[in-house]
Design brief:
The chain folds into 2 domains: 3-171, THUMP fold (2-Layer Sandwich); 187-359, Vaccinia Virus protein VP39 (Rossmann fold, 3-Layer(aba) Sandwich). The protein is globular. It is built from 12 helices and 14 strands. It has 363 residues and is α/β, with parallel strands linked by helices.
Length: 363
């Protein structure tokens, strides 16, 4: 168990590799990363035999920016017989910890998508066979490891496992979301995915609910505002461009034109600040830090555009700048992820745990 496998966005293999190498080194698990351009995956080769399992348990998945999923490689079968794939998989899986579910996956590439139909059809019979051999529990069990079968071709599979307390809960690390027919733009899915990734589902009723006020900077045509309205919030939308008329007709949206960077609310009653603007990351970081330090909002989600080169270094630099600015007030928690619906950008979430705790119902 010397290999740790990570999924990432195609084209960001080098960033994911640099990140896991940095993090693994800090945890005392040295090794090197193997990548192939546009493959959508990274394999981190540990020098010590058991270090991949150590990383799967102790490297906080939520702190990885560029990884969509993370699991330990158990075995690789590169020449499966097409008339009987299951028996070799069962034999290779012997000795695995008993798992609570199986995910038959492909990589998020054009080649991987061609295998998706096969993977769906293969899932039921292989699940039954794994249960018959007591490699899987009889019923799906969330508190046990997850078994991953990653097909690189119809006769080539990598077998491994992840820990349910330290992985993405989504198949292939991608939440399956549907765009509402009346959404003004596809950017709605970006904010919705951010909610799924950053906000525990058990806290949606207090942190993503009616009665809260929100500000959307760079809002037009209203993709992010649309989702906030759906959650029942009252939204102030800032943008010089026109907003979707249906949103304005909802009675929940006030649209202001002017300088997005200088506008401030008249009252300190804004809970959410969101921003998806194409601008220099340093300007966005400075603006968001100012809002948070002045306590003009309680939580913020925003995007930072990445350059064509040195994207990992740029992401780290901007997050460090944000952390340093927020030190003046203290108590902030910063999370960042390159979401499935992100492109040349990362999404950042900032909040203060003590203020979030005040929203939760008392036991």
């Amino acid at each position: 168990m010397k290999q740790l496998l990570l999924y990432c966005r195609s084209g960001f293999e080098k960033e994911a590799a640099a990140e896991v190498q940095d993090k693994a080194g800090l945890l005392g698990c040295p090794g090197f990363a193997r990548t192939k351009d546009d493959s959508g995956m990274v394999i981190y080769e540990c020098f010590a035999p058991e270090d991949a399992d150590v990383l799967a348990r102790k490297l906080p998945f939520r702190e990885l920016i560029f990884a969509r999923q993370m699991w330990v490689v158990w075995a690789e079968l590169a020449d499966l017989p097409l008339d009987n794939r299951i028996d070799p998989i069962l034999a290779a899986a012997e000795g695995l910890p008993i798992c609570g579910e199986v995910r038959v996956e492909t990589l998020d590439t054009n080649e991987g998508k061609e295998l998706s139909r096969f993977c769906r059809k293969f899932t039921v019979p292989v699940r039954q066979a794994l249960r018959g051999k007591d490699i899987l529990t009889r019923e799906e069990t969330r508190n046990r490891p997850t078994l991953h079968l990653l097909f690189l071709a119809s006769n080539h599979v990598i077998i491994g496992y992840s820990y349910s307390f330290n992985h993405s809960p989504f198949h292939m690390g991608i939440p399956r979301l549907r765009l509402a027919a009346d959404a003004p733009s596809r950017s709605t899915l970006k904010l919705e995915e951010a909610f799924h990734v950053f906000i525990p589902r058990a806290e949606w009723e207090t942190r993503l609910t009616s009665g809260l006020n929100a500000v959307d900077i760079g809002a037009a045509p209203g993709g992010w505002t649309f989702l906030l309205v759906q959650k029942g919030m009252m939204v102030t939308a800032l943008d010089n461009s026109p907003m979707d008329q249906k949103l304005l007709d909802s009675g929940q949206v006030k649209h202001y034109r002017g300088d997005d960077f200088s506008w401030r609310p008249a009252r300190k009653n804004v809970y959410w600040l969101v921003c998806d603007m194409v601008d220099k990351p340093a300007r966005i970081v400075a603006m968001m830090a100012t809002w948070l330090l002045e306590e003009n909002c309680q939580e913020a989600i925003f995007n930072l555009k990445l350059p064509m080169k040195k994207r990992y270094a740029e992401a780290l630099h901007n997050l460090q700048q944000l952390a340093e600015k927020l030190e003046a007030l203290g108590g902030f928690h910063i999370q960042a992820k390159q979401l499935y619906h992100d492109r040349e950008e990362i999404t950042v979430h900032v909040y203060q745990p003590d203020k979030v705790a005040k929203l939760q119902p008392k036991a």
